[in-house]
UniProtKB/TrEMBL annotation:
Protein name: 4'-phosphopantetheine phosphatase
Gene name per UniProt: PANK4
Main localisation: cytoplasm
Keyword Hydrolase: yes
Span of domain Damage-control phosphatase ARMT1-like metal-binding: 448-756
Source species taxonomy: Eukaryota, Metazoa, Chordata, Craniata, Vertebrata
Organism for this UniProt entry: Ficedula albicollis (Collared flycatcher)
Length: 770
């Protein structure tokens, strides 16, 4: 159903006073290629696709033939321009539509289309205005089709898109794990009336029911009862009201609970029932609240009946009646819980307001097949979910004016689940939910704030020849600082708040200001130094007996993991002690008592069991970590007859090794070591990219090529190393094969929380239950 609104009923009354900052609102508009628009009665949602030019770091191997390689850099680093695709979604009040259309017209340069896809009731009302202002033909699309296409898109591409609303709990928004199969589900769209749609596949859906009693009923009757004509003001009244002053409850009829039927005394027996017997005036607030409960209960019961009839347990609610309002989400949630006896959960979408615009855009882009790609939310350019707290809401509105934004970047390759996850539907990457854990949230937000100046300084230093590097670094610092302050007030803004999301937001902000790889020179230098030590490390290992060598290999893996520039305790040491190296890192390790049990199980497996068929190893840091820690371990597995898939980040994050860097490093190691050389030649050692540019690891969003390889090679061992990949994420991940999770705890607060000391080690060998 179409949205309805209170302001801006005619073109002549539209407000033109707003000033639009192009660097925040209509970003990259000059490179927009295609448009779509969804106009309700009060809100307009604009979608456009643009090409974004930004800097990327590239590495290329030098030709070292005939040169003194000891004094030459390992590889060349260059920063190049790259063109990528981005989707922009902007939501604003219809009041500003004419001003926004003028702004778009003035900044439109490279559009490739002569048509704009449009949906929503307002698409008819504003058709002539759009065509006149933009010179584009309006092509109207079916509202429900667009909503469903948009819903499928966000469910597939945005982790933590879905949430349950829990007003009285510590965590207001309870985000759900994305299920690998999003179908089937029930979509209940509450506009003027109610439409209930069963969605079975991407293109198969049917309208199965509805009601004429919906948001329009609440608005119309509310206006009659309270003389309040604006929808949001009605909801504000309802949020302050007490419905029991107007509604007749079960206890008002029976003097308490109706035990025979199992009905609570506080259950509504008759909406507005007291208005027929009480000789008094009722407050506007109480009447609005009673009306809201009456309509929500009606919708909730209908939705439950249809869900049970069609054997569905997922119900997503949307439409202008919802729109993130706490009072409507709370009443709908209560109604669904009551009528389903807790068997069905009312679910809401973080980007519900954009579904129509997303769907209209997808309809216009079908020839490009956008669903063949994976997309990722760009936290740097997105507003995030608004707080429902009256104390926070004004601050948020001040930040973004009357506009909300969502930006999504097209990823180079499709992302899929790791085939070895035991149950992808219950997999949760992150170990700690900072939305729930207030103490941890306060610590980590402060930690990221304190590290910010250092990150900005390193970013500027990474581009010494750029005249504006300092200015861009300051803009990065300010933007990320603002994001952190928003997350202090509303930790649910981008879904479940975790250490991973804080790190990813920082990377997005760095890229936004063209700092693609601030640690590129550090990695180049450390890779070169570590390579010079590789042969002596291998000789030392080969001189040991078998059992001693296994322990030395594990200790080397852990010592290598110390070299993490993302950990302040380590970066302070590395900056103050330039000679700090592999042996010094070994001496720092604190072996926790239970390491011995897990390690002895691993050792027993190596002694008694057959060689693993194929090991998948997720590498962490450049330099000593991958060269002196990971590669000797890889070499040992290869010597046992185990194939190895070595997976590295597709793009840079901190000093983590990237896929392109790993190719060069491996080539140099192969030139020194016959085991590695032979394995590469015979394709027993395979280098792949993860599809990620994060210091952490989400096993539900991995490069499709990696997943295919894992299946083809019958992988039966997964090794995950590093604090980001094995502690902040995946500590509790359950796999269908054997796994090793290794890391060094390089944070004093986290070590103390886990009952250890800084530089304590994690060595977790797990065997799947049979």
């Amino acid at each position: 159903m179409a949205e309805r609104g209170g302001r801006g009923s005619g073109h002549g009354s539209l407000d033109k006073s707003i000033t639009l900052p192009p660097d925040e609102i209509f970003r990259n508009l000059e490179n927009a290629k295609r448009f779509a628009i969804d106009i309700g009665g009060s809100l307009t949602k604009l979608a456009y696709y643009s090409t974004v030019q930004h800097k990327v770091a590239r590495v290329r191997s030098f030709d070292h033939s005939g040169k003194d390689i000891d004094n030459e850099p390992l590889y060349e680093i260059s920063v190049q321009e790259e063109i990528t695709a981005r989707l922009h979604f902007i939501k604003f009040e219809n009041t500003y539509i004419e001003t926004c259309l003028d702004f778009i017209k003035d900044h439109l340069v490279n559009t490739e289309t002569k048509v704009i896809k449009a949906t929503g009731g307002g698409a008819y009302k504003f058709k002539d205005l759009i065509e006149k202002k933009l010179g584009l033909k309006v092509d109207k699309e079916d509202v429900m089709t667009c909503l469903i296409k948009g819903c499928n898109f966000v469910l597939r591409n945005i982790p933590h898109e879905v949430f349950a609303y829990q007003k009285d709990s510590d965590t207001e928004f309870r985000f759900q794990t994305n299920h690998p199969n999003i179908f089937p589900y029930l979509l209940v769209n509450i506009g003027s009336g109610v439409s209930i749609v069963k969605v079975e596949t991407e293109d198969k859906f049917e309208w199965i029911g509805g009601s004429s009693i919906g948001g329009g009923t609440f608005w119309g009757l509310g206006a009659l009862l309270t003389k309040t004509k604006k929808f949001d003001e009605l909801l504000q009244l309802a949020s302050k009201g007490q419905h029991t002053n107007v509604d007749m409850l079960v206890k008002d009829v029976y003097g308490g609970a109706y035990q025979t039927l199992g009905l609570s005394g506080n259950l509504i027996a008759s909406s507005f029932g007291k208005s027929t017997t009480a000789d008094k005036e009722f407050s506007k607030e109480d009447m609005a609240k009673s009306l809201l409960h009456m309509i929500s209960n009606d919708i909730g019961q209908l939705a439950c009946l249809y869900a049970k009839l069609h054997n569905l347990d997922k119900i997503y609610f949307g439409g202008f009646f919802i729109r993130g309002h706490p009072v409507t989400m709370r009443t709908i949630t209560y109604s669904i819980n009551f009528f389903s006896k807790g068997e069905v959960q009312a679910l809401f979408l973080r980007h519900e307001g954009y579904l129509g615009a997303i769907g209209a855009f997808l309809k216009g882009a079908e020839q490009d097949n956008p669903n063949q790609y994976s997309w990722g939310e760009n936290y740097a350019g997105s507003s995030g979910l608004m707080s429902t707290s009256p104390d926070v809401y004004p601050m948020q509105r001040t930040r973004s004016g009357t506009f909300d934004m969502l930006e999504m970047d097209r990823l180079e390759r499709p992302l899929v689940n790791l085939p070895l996850l035991k149950d992808p539907s219950t997999y949760i990457p992150d170990t700690v939910d900072l939305t729930d854990d207030a103490m941890a949230r306060k610590y980590w937000l402060t930690c990221f704030e304190e590290a910010l100046d250092g990150v900005a300084k390193r970013a500027a230093a990474s581009q010494p020849d750029s005249v504006d590097a300092q200015e861009r670094a300051e803009k990065f610092r300010q933007k990320y600082w603002n994001k952190l302050q928003t997350l202090r007030q509303q930790p649910f803004a981008y879904g479940t708040l975790t250490v991973r999301s804080l790190l990813d937001t920082r990377e997005h902000c760095l890229n936004e200001f063209n700092f693609p790889d601030p640690y590129s020179k550090v990695k180049q230098k450390e890779n070169g130094i570590a390579l010079k030590c590789f042969q002596s490390v291998i000789e030392s290992l080969d001189s040991l007996g078998w059992e001693e060598r296994q322990f030395a290999l594990v200790k080397g893996l852990l010592a290598g993991n110390v070299f993490d520039w993302g950990a302040k305790a380590v970066s302070d040491v590395l900056e103050s002690e330039p000679q700090f190296g592999f042996e010094e890192a070994k001496s720092k390790l604190q072996e926790r008592p239970w390491l011995e049990d897990s390690y002895s199980q691993w050792l027993e497996r190596l002694k008694e069991g057959p060689p693993h068929k194929c090991a998948l190893i997720f590498a962490d840091n450049s330099g000593i970590d991958i060269i002196l820690g990971v590669f000797p371990f890889v070499r040992e597995l290869l010597s046992r007859g185990t194939e190895v898939i070595l997976a590295c980040n597709s793009g840079p994050a901190l000093n983590d090794v990237t896929y392109s860097e790993s190719l060069i490093v491996t080539e140099r190691i192969a030139a020194m070591d016959p085991v590695i050389h032979s394995a590469l030649k015979d394709e027993k050692l395979l280098l792949v990219q993860t599809g990620s540019s994060s210091p952490c690891l989400d096993l539900s969003r991995l490069d499709q090529g990696l997943a295919v390889l894992v299946r083809e090679r019958q992988t039966d061992l997964v090794v995950i190393e590093g604090m980001g990949r094995a502690i902040h994420t995946n500590y509790y991940a359950v796999l269908r094969c054997e796994s090793l999770k290794l890391a060094v705890i390089k944070n004093s607060w986290l070590a103390d929380r886990l009952g250890g000391k800084i530089f304590s080690v994690i060595f977790k060998y797990e065997v799947p239950c049979k």
